[in-house]
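Hey Z.,

So I finally got round to the zinc ion thing we talked about over coffee. Here's the setup:
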Amino acid sequence: MSEAIQFELKENLVPAKYAQRLKKSISLLSGIVTTLTLFVIVLVVFVARKSPSIEKNKICLSHACVKAANMVIENMNFSVDPCEDFYEFTCGSFVKKTVLAENQRISTFDRIENQLGQSLSDLLTQSDSESDIEPIKNAKKFLRSCLNESNIEKNGDAKLMRFIIKEFDGWPLFDPIFFRNETQHAYKNLAALYKYGIFFLFDLYVNPSISNPTIPTFKIYQPSWFLDKSYYEKEEKMNSYKNFIAKILRLYNSSNSDLTDDIDKMVELEKKLAMNLLNTAEKRIMAYEKMTIGSLKKNFSEFDWETFIQKKVFKEIGNISIGDNQEVELFSFRYVSNAIKIFTEELKKDKKNLDNLLIWSFVKKSLHFLPKAYSGLTPKLAKMFPELERFTNERLLECIYSVTEQMEYAVGRLYVENFFNHDSKKASFEMIKNIQNEFKIMLNEYDWMDRVSRKAALEKADSIDIKVGFPEFIFNDTYLIEMYQEYKMSEVEFFENTYLINRILIEDNLKQILKKVERKVWQMGPAIVNAFYNPQSNQICFPAGILQAPFYDSKSPNYLNYGGIGAVIGHEITHGFDDRGRKFDKDGIFHSDDSGSLWSNKAVENYKNKAQCIIDQYSNFLVKQINKRLNGNQTQGENIADNGGLKESYRAYKRWEEKNGKEPLLPGLNFNQDQLFFINYGQIWCGKYKSSYLEKAVSKGLHSVGDFRVRGTTMNMEAFSKAFNCKPGQQNNPIKKCSIW
Ligand SMILES: [Zn+2]
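And the result:
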């Protein structure tokens, strides 16, 4: 399952380190993917100038409450008026105290992720025990191979060379005698890349059809191995890119031949392809053409579909025969149609150059499996091209994230077994039901929806598939062993291990074309600090990794839990009703607005007007650090989800409070329950960022940066201004408010 139409809670702008575009599919017998320092609590008795009297409330002194109070105190800037800038109020000290050093970003999420990484490393670096089942042993082996830097230093070079000779018959740049000036040879190399999960010309994979999510189909998207499109237009950037390639090539082959012309030609071709890429806003529209293999052949007759798709990819790699009638969904049309033209023209003009670039795309993706001389060059380049920057440069953590990604259910089992509090699963499930129910109550209140549209929305809200914590199958030894039976990892060969997994994933993905889609399966491993909505399965998912403080703690007061994971739950539910999600019905079938088959035209029009308010509002937000405004259009889906989510969770909390009474407050703080609800919400988005990261997040991200995830949502909520007694027109309480859900 690709990430193509999976809505995530937070931005993952850091590229997956190891080519990872596909997930192990789950079907019945096969399957689908900073330490929070505790400071000694300082009991600052702060008299909030605006808080209503709270003397009557009791104080909670449990560990969870003291820890939470501590975090609040550590993060907040008490000198700021929450009604002027709620983000600075909740996160001011966090930003001031956090030191970025080599990191491009440190946020609450990153701290928790780091902590999770540390916990996993404790488990995965332990030597094998007799009770470990085979997949756990293999996960440990994979980790050891990743950590075995001396082997990588010793053999990495030779491995790469052998691999290139074996799979691509050599690199024409250095092995001109092997070069075969034949069209078929270029298709063979294109497929060789595909076999290892590197999609050179376009992404190809099998997943549920947009028009009928019970049927698997074959999808084509623009690929992701390029640099950002904007760089290709800047001479200075292209020169550093060429220098980088030259350095890598010299490491690969120390011969003195002058490669300048070859590199120029390669980069020229890469640029030609990249200039047709769709940007984030264009991509998120999800426009696609329904075709068949037969119509691809007719419409793009210059490309040899028969050889590439039918013979090489499906037959040779997947051992599957597909006919001309096989349906295809073609996304990123502008890119794909031009890329095919460019590819086939180059094929006539300069096969050698094409081959050189194909192999470069492989080497570029493989740098991290190579000796330091190679991999050490990437951080330098990343200074010029922030999208190449990594989340961490610490080898152990990188390797942990990699094994967690590659074997998510095996690693997830270890995590859940050792660190997950099982009570959380049941208790958070109840919260989800409460918030889902609140959303349904809200749906009945909107006068801008007519009866038919409301009915469709209610049915959809009712049939959301809820996934919490972890799938039960991770504790079924037989199941897990079967799922990972092909993962026979070597102790030392990191390069081989990674490409073996990629190959397994590709074969597994291709085979899905023959199977019925099981919509209700898990799509994420448990050891992730994130949450998801999938419109095709109408599924919300909260992996075990996010069910911890400050999001959730079964021993914390519910005003914290609702401000934390509650807002996240609301966010994911609301994705089903954001500008894209609302077009999918309860069964995950996509309905275009023109069809009028899901909502009435009038309701769609009303919705669009309301969405426009949010688009305009966020477009006006200025990220001062880089002096750029947010892209309200590109981020609208996430902003709609943020705004709805916080409201739903707040209302659900108030309903809960009505039934169960007011909860004790936090020690050392003079805030009431409502205020603490909002403060905890604000603190899950605390973050400090390098400007290069912000540039990338603003231009390419689907999410607003943390600052505005806090300010935008609270600005639009009456309940917020009431909680903090804000005057109309104060910065964090504008008179004009936007609201859809
Ligand atoms: Zn989201």
